[in-house]
Fold this sequence. Notes:
The structure is a homodimer of 347-residue chains.
Chain A: E1 2-7, E2 13-18, E3 42-45, E4 52-55, E5 91-95, E6 107-112, H1 126-143, E7 151-158, E8 170-176, H2 181-197, H3 201-210, E9 215-218, E10 222-225, E11 234-240, H4 252-270, E12 285-290, E13 303-308, E14 310-312, E15 315-316, H5 321-326, E16 329-331, H6 335-344
Antiparallel strand pairs in A: 1-2, 2-5, 3-4, 5-6, 6-8, 7-8, 7-12, 9-10, 10-11, 11-13, 12-13, 14-15
Helix pairs in contact in A: 1-4
Amino acid sequence: MRKTTAKLADGRELIFFDADDAPLREAHDERPLTAAEPNPSEIRLDAVTGDWVTIAAHRQGRTYHPPADECPLCPSRDGRLSEIPSGDYQVAVFENRFPSLSGGVGRCEVVCFTPDHGSSFADLDEGRARLVLDAWTDRTAELRQLPGVAQVYCFENRGAEIGVTLAHPHGQIYAFPLVTPRTARMLQQAARHRAATGRNLFEDLLARERTGDRVVLATEHWTAFVPYAARWPYEVHLHPNRRVPDLTALTEAERAEFPAVYLDLLRRFDRLFTEPGQPWAPTPYIAAWHQAPHHDAAELALHLELFTVRRAAGKLKHLAGVESGMDAFVNDISPEAAARRLRELAP
Amino acid sequence: MRKTTAKLADGRELIFFDADDAPLREAHDERPLTAAEPNPSEIRLDAVTGDWVTIAAHRQGRTYHPPADECPLCPSRDGRLSEIPSGDYQVAVFENRFPSLSGGVGRCEVVCFTPDHGSSFADLDEGRARLVLDAWTDRTAELRQLPGVAQVYCFENRGAEIGVTLAHPHGQIYAFPLVTPRTARMLQQAARHRAATGRNLFEDLLARERTGDRVVLATEHWTAFVPYAARWPYEVHLHPNRRVPDLTALTEAERAEFPAVYLDLLRRFDRLFTEPGQPWAPTPYIAAWHQAPHHDAAELALHLELFTVRRAAGKLKHLAGVESGMDAFVNDISPEAAARRLRELAP
């Protein structure tokens, strides 16, 4: 993997990740961008729930469903200048122009998985998927060194149904200034489990799931299963078999096996809702890497949570009054049935 | 208020709430319904977060966007038999035919606000809105007496953007078998505040908000404000000025003032996103009554949380990777700006 760093016209950082045999990258951003007005985000604590909320009042003007020929994530070609001032790239990461976290309150980055606008993560070959894993790992190592960063979160939102406003295949990385509410709950549960049993919560859960009927696939280094209390119609948790705190702690053997496993999962997801004789209906999904916060004693086990908001062809699971009002999820599909269906969708 | 109780053909309960001068109701359900197969919901604890999830695998076949002339919430007229076997009603409540909570694990009810299919809560007159308040209050008192019910939750989802699949104006009531995750967090925060200060959390918050710049409207008995750490683009919390645990504890003076206050708020919400010269765009919203669990020492203060997922005309706030993955909400509109705008939208 070769890493090339550059600056965009307004001072934001741009980083290319390429295979070793790729052409060298040079980038000169010729756009007349000026540095963003300092308009920092604000973190507010909700005294009623104990959770914090980010107020980012400067983002309403962000790019919204641009036509394909104005895509800011495509390479800069034919006189059209995008966010990536290069005629080609393999994987590119840059600081978000409309960040939720800004002004010293964390940082937001965009990860472009491929220069091919009409593609998707599931379409990548294993070499490119490995390059994305390397990019996530590099950014985790770098961002957690920034002052004030507590937790690095790599994720992908896929599909307009999820709220994605740029169709080009990409993910995001948030370097949070605080431990997120969900991670804080996980750490609290892990601490309780440690106090009660002397063992790690995630290791115990993975051991239980590996012998049960919710496994989707299991390889030498990875296990994918539908969790016992899945919140979403189709939800898969992918764990390395060996507990590690974050992406930087994976071995080469674990890293080498990841692309095939993850691409297999994504392709099963994409087969969930396409009905015979109907046009292909790509599955909207969220893929969320859970990593231990930098200053945590590492009870949290690295894993990826992959889930879709689609519950049937043409029907979405909305977070309405029960979920959004009371955090009480109702799942219409039993986790065991979801696992069975995902097993049947093997290539 | 006059209450009339009947049974639907499959044994479910139906209750009419009418003004004292309304015609007497009789209901004979002539549909050939058979009692639902016993297929109870299951409550599963997520060991990783400590939250519970309801698995309701029997609901996938529920009614989904029927045409208006097949609406199950309209009165039964002209030979068409709906869920309400009466040619007219004012407010009607019945057990949900496709309940998320069933088989002894709680109960779900539907509340029809009006027989007028094309109307909305904001279109009700004060008398009808009062009748709905009386129905919510009656159901709270009744349902919490059922064996195994821990918390009664009255709410309305409004708009297809929220996932509403029946356009007829209606709300729902869930009688939960457990305290919901969000309520549990509120109770934990209130207990901490009590331990630290000797005072009630909600009383302190309301006192602070009443003197600040996030008040939307304040009357003799009620105060509506945008909370300091609002999660949603437009979010209003409506509290009675006197702390009470639930709807059954409101005085007649508080009850009498509620309809005008709530209708005013809903009508401001409906003016948020309609642009000059454009067709009226009703605001999708969730209205959620927070009540103290039945067996709680009543640190939780009754209040209504009203919020919309729309952030601008034609644009929704989606719960994507940051919110759904990490419970870390990002709000693009500052709570102070939201309050100012809602104040300006006074009738």
